[in-house]
Write a structure and sequence with these properties.
By secondary structure, the chain is of the alpha+beta class. The chain has helices spanning about 1-35, 55-60, 85-90, 115-125, 125-145, 210-220, 240-245; strands at about 40-45, 45-50, 70-75, 80, 115, 175-180, 200-205, 225-230, 235, 255-265. It has a 5-stranded mixed β-sheet, covered by helices on one side. The N and C termini lie far apart (about 75 Å).
């Protein structure tokens, strides 16, 4: 009896060991699959070919787990969400970033910006989504018998012939291209590294304090140690890019504004 019991225990231990080994092999196989799951992008003749799932983490809203629709970004922390997802969160009384809990008080609606770049990227990769959105919206109004407002058409140019050469800028377009480079004359010779991509495009409403947070994240520095300059003069944290372009930048230097960054003069490293 004792021998049969010992054999049964030995057999059970052996079975458990086999299961653990099989489980380990499956786990290792899963990890290997995760590493080689997506091939690297292929760039040929100016075009890039890539596996869409390999970039899903950059295109999916963490609130609805769907691709971004009218993406809005929080400049304070650079987290992006669908507009409807974010606004629904605000309407429920939540006034923080859903991911990092960054406070957006007092008015969270003014603390987010439409991310036109991300919007265009998603629509270029998935053009059928914009078509489906328009179709769903049309059906929504039809089911409820609501007459949609006609889209406003641009007014005809009734200016004189002498004024026809003046370009008319769209009032809703607030994006701005600018360069962000290290200052040529760093404090005490302590220069900072250049950004990998110094040419940036963002909303003109972006403030310098938000730009500093972007720099701090890229350069792995404390935001209070950074200083941003335009035409060699430091600019205040509360100023927007549009205000700086209109009041500090000289268009004769180029169409795209150039901002420089350096360590602040009172920084002690």
């Amino acid at each position: 009896m004792e021998n049969s019991g010992a054999k049964a225990a030995q057999s059970k231990t052996s079975d458990e060991s086999s299961e653990d080994k099989a489980s380990t092999e499956i786990s290792q196989k899963s990890n290997d699959d995760a590493v080689v799951k997506y091939p690297p992008p292929i760039i040929e003749n100016g075009f890039a070919s890539f596996s869409i799932p390999s970039i899903n983490s950059h295109l999916i809203c963490s609130l609805c787990n769907g691709y971004y629709r009218e993406p809005h970004t929080i400049p304070e922390c650079l987290h992006t969400y669908c507009k409807s997802c974010l606004y629904m969160s605000f309407r429920s009384g939540f006034k923080n970033c859903p991911k990092c809990n960054k406070s957006l008080e007092p008015d969270p609606y003014k603390a987010v910006l439409f991310d036109r770049t991300m919007h265009e990227i998603v629509n270029k990769i998935f053009p059928h989504l914009a078509e489906q959105d328009a179709k769903d919206e049309e059906e929504f109004y039809m089911r409820r018998g609501i007459k949609r407002k006609q889209e406003s058409k641009p007014q005809e140019n009734k200016t004189k012939a002498t004024d026809k050469k003046k370009p008319i800028k769209s009032t809703w377009e607030d994006s701005m291209d600018f360069q962000l480079i290290p200052d040529a004359e760093p404090v005490e010779g302590k220069g900072l590294s250049p950004l990998e991509k110094p040419l940036l495009r963002t909303s003109g409403r972006l403030k310098i304090v938000q730009l500093k947070k972007f720099l701090a994240e890229k350069l792995k520095l404390d935001v209070v140690k950074l200083e941003v300059l335009c035409n060699g003069a430091p600019v205040g944290d509360e100023l927007s890019l549009t205000f700086i372009h209109r009041t500090r930048w000289n268009d004769s230097l180029g169409e795209d504004m150039i901002l420089c960054y350096r360590l602040s003069e009172d920084t002690a490293l």
